[in-house]
Structure formats: structure tokens, C-alpha cells
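User: Here's a chain of 504 residues. Predict its fold as C-alpha cells.
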Amino acid sequence: MENKFTMTTSLSADRLKSPKHSWLRRVHFSRWDGHSTPVLEEAAANLISHLRRGGNCFQSEPDVNTDVLLTTAPFGEPIDWREALLFTARLRTKLSRTPTIFTLIHATTAEFQNLLDHFDRVLAKEPPEPSDFAFPGLAPNAYRTLVEQGRRGGAIMAVERLLQAQSKCIRIILIVGDERPDQAFYFDLVGAHPSVDADDLDFFYRDMALRIVTSASTAEVIQHTVAGDPVPRQVWDGLTTPAAMRAAGIQLGNREFFTQMVRIADLVNVPAMADAVAVQYSEGCFATWDPQLGALIATVTGSARPVEKDSITSDDLAVIVGVRPDGLGALVRHVERKRNDPPSSEAVEMMDMDSMLPRLDARFVAGASEPVPVVRSKLHGHRGVDAYNPKRVEFVPLDAPYYHYPVSCATEAQARAIKSAFARSEALQNPADPRQVVFTVLPGHGVVIAEKWVDGKVPFQTIWEYMDSGDLHIDNLVPQGPMEYAHEADGTRRLAREVPLYTE
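Assistant: Prediction complete.
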């Protein structure tokens, strides 16, 4: 197997001047004792010290104000779900909600390298051998998820999913080193795995504290609200957009854009506790504007039930008509005699990004009775963009802090980041600009692609045609930190990566 799949970005103090987000707040945090090693104890003490130095409040016991719980877990050993804070924090702390949980795990250099080498070796086998993935605490079918994730993102991503399953925690800080930290990896729900070198320990722990505060300073915007009268079934059946969405799902699936859904039961046997963790996590979403309804037709959330994005049905679509005034969720219009599940977690960002962009006169769009957004279709997936043709495609960068301190999916901070990036698009601010596709990349997460209205094209057609022509080259690897596109001799812009880690 080609080792390009093991690339990760390492950030160190001598190369990085990390800008902070302007919206950070002070957080309340507490520690919950778990597994102990000398390196973990030193790391926890230094982390707590740097969190305090940043003005955050340490609590000896968690209470209703607690934002973050710090705990520890052993490397390579499973924790019983009855002991895992993700499932038991509310019961054990007597709190009405579960704080954000970060688990610190320590691996010696040899332990970590041996596990990486193991996955590099077994992921190359075809067909894969299930016995190679029979780690303690995993479900019998866990090998399927580890193989898919590892072949897509490299050995480090297989390590990530293994540790998440064994520790029963989503947010993990893996500290690698013998008598002291050499580096830390930061794992989350979508498979992010940036690493930070510990050559400067003061920077190392300050950076760690800032990553935790960044995560705790933003909130999910998934409190979607039903608004307006239901769409009559006769009207829904007469729309062309639902069929176009189904056709686009097939086209994008044929190009293997959508990554496989991560099902918790395939990784580890735990009880179904919806208030603690979803049964599965769907990767990616897409939406297009319906000029007749004056609304965004989007895929529904995959956390409620399995949704295969390349074979959607009418019941897998939701109608988004706006954003709640408080920004905590989207405004959704139901459809008569149709299953009406909530839209994808990215519903707010998909809808709100239009608010700072121009609209097109209804005369130029078939079926429109009022102005429509300049962006016709929006596509998000856990992929990267390796190269693009700047004559046809525009790349819009995020604000600088988001490359150093990424935010999680479905948060108001991510919605703000995407809105701000696309608002700077020259191609979107000027509808006459010949570039029909615009994209940005969320480090550690994936790509967001916007498509303009093009005469004679169906929704997403320009995007998939650009994929076929090489004008937009989709890649398995998602950058994990700061990134830029360098000029090639043929005029192409190609992603300039830092030197990969753990490659030969």
C-alpha cells in the first residue's frame, strides 16, 4: 500500500506563530482520575497549569458550570462502558448535562510506532484478514471500519478509531514519548489527527490548552425548528429538485466522493444511549436550491438513522427555509405525507453562507418567482482537494485561526468560518466571473464546495464534470493544519504539504 495515506501534519513552536480566535471564552474545567503513568501525571499537571494561566477556572469537583472534564485512559486497553465518562458522567457527577470530555492517553515511542507499523502492514493485505484487527474490546466486525478508515486516511486514522473504541471517548489527546512527551495527536469525531511536536514544552502545553478552550468555546447549532405550513404533497411530487438530488447522489457516489458511514456497533459493543452517543455518524452532506419553493433541499442527518448519500430517497431530504434568529439551528419546513427527519448537522452553515452573497434576478433562473442565491448547490465531504484549475475553480481560505485551532462540525464557529470564507469569494460576489465552482477546506474535517447556476446543467453537474476533467482533483487526504496551494508550471494550483510523518 502506498504510504501517502499515512501523512499527517506536525506543528512545532519554531515554525508556528498561532493566531487565536477572537471569540474564545473562559471555561470551567475539572479533572476525573483515571489511568496513571508518570508522563500522564506530568502532562495533566502542566495542562491544568496552562489552562489556569489562560484565565480558565479549575474546579476540584464538577458542577453545573463545568464545560470540560479531563480524564485519562490506558493505551491499547479497553475501558468498560460502565466506567467510561461518555456514558456515565451525568450519573456520576449528578449533572443535568455531560460536559465536553477529553481523554489523555500515553504511549511510549515503541508502543506507538509498533501499532502504526502493524496497521501499515495489515492494511496492505488484499483481502484483509479479520484476525489482524482483533484488538481487545472491539466488536467482531470492527475490522471493516478499521480497514476503510485506515485505507482512506492511513495507519494513524486506524489507530485513532481503535483508541476511540477502546477508551469509549471521542476527543482524545494521545501523548507519545518515553520519559517526557515528544508529540501529541488530537483525535475527534470526524477523524482529525493533527500532531504537535513537544520540542518546546511551554508552547506544547499552551497549544494543548488553547485547543481545549477552542472546542469548549463554541456550541452545536442543531436545534432545528419547524416553520411555516407543510409543503403539499402534490407540490413536492411536482418538483424537479428531489429527483436531481437523487441523481446527484448517484453521480457523486460513482466517483467515490462519499466516505463510508461509521457505525458504533461495528466498532464496539455498547448500549444504545442516544443522549451519550449517536448510533452512527454519516459522513458528508449536500444541498441545492429549489427556485419554486424558495428553499434549500438538503440531505437529512445520518446520526438519527443510516443514510447512504449515494442512494438517497425522497425521505432522505429536508426543506430548509432559513436560520433561527438566535442562530441555534435551521428553520425547516415539513412535507405532507413524507418522513421529515432533521437536516444534516451542517444545515445552518449551508443556509447561512448565502446571507453575505448576492442573489440573482428571478428572470435568469427557470421556475423562480423571486431572486435566488448565487450559489445553486453545496457539497460537503470528508475529502481534501489536491489540485485545481484556477481558471475554472476558486479556492477561498478560512480565517487564519481555523487552520491552527480547528473547530468541530455542526458548531456555530464552523458555520461562521464557512460564511466568512465564501463571502470573500470573487467568483461568487461577481456572478459574471467565469469560475463556476468555489471551495474551501476545513482542516482535519473536509471540503465544502459551492456551485453556481450554469445554463443547461443540472444540480452538481458542473462539480462532477470538473472532477472528471481534473479541474477539481479530490483527494483522500484532508490537511490537518495550515495549508496553501502552490503554482505549478502548467497553471494548476497544487496543495503544498509539509514533510509527512511516518512515511518511508
